[in-house]
Amino acid sequence: MNKEFKKLYNKYFKLIIVFGTIKKVILLFLMLIPLISFSQKISEKTIKFNPEIHIIEVEASCGICLFNMKGSECKLAVKLNNVTYYVEGTGIDDHGDAHSKSGFCNAIRTAEVQGKIINNKFHATYFELKRFKD
Questions:
Q1: pLDDT digit string (tens) for 85-99?
Q2: What is residue 104's three-state secondary structure?
Q3: DSSP H or E segment with residue 13
Q4: Average pLDDT, stretch 55-62?
């Protein structure tokens, strides 16, 4: 009986150790979730109207779908003086669903913009779409 008791005690003791370790791991994981989620960098785009810079009216659309530009994925582009430029500072999905009827992949939209052309890309500091007309 003494041997059976020791076997049962050892099994029970091992289970307690295993479950205690599992509890510690789960508790550690639960404590790390807020640290991981709050440590992510949130990028805020600084697209603001500047009254000191003149507004440029451009055609805006998907560079690949409607402006026939080179690239591997749909990306916002503008046509300025019959030259097309990809846009930095705002993205194709920042202005609604790109694949809707009035989206950039299906329609060329008019936009009022401010920014500069740097390295053959338009760096927008302000980007406002005009109302879509059917």
A1: 999 999 998 888 888
A2: coil
A3: helix 2-38
A4: 95
Looking at residue 130, what DSSP letter applies? P
Residues making up the chain, counted from first to last: 134
pTM (2 d.p.): 0.64
DSSP sequence for 27-63: HHHHHHHHHHHHTSPPP-------TTS--EEEEEEET
- The Cα 113–Cα 104 span in angstroms is 16
Q: Count CB-CB contacts under 10 A for residue 74.
A: 20
Characterize 5-42 residue by residue with b for buried, 16 or more Cβ atoms within 10 angstroms of its Cβ, and e for exposed: eeeeeeeeeeeeeeeeeeeeeeeeeeeeeeeeeeeeee
For residues 111 and 130, the answer to whether their CB atoms sit within 8 Å is yes
pLDDT digits (tens, 9 = 90+) for 42-53: 555 567 888 899
Q: Output the average pLDDT for the chain.
A: 83
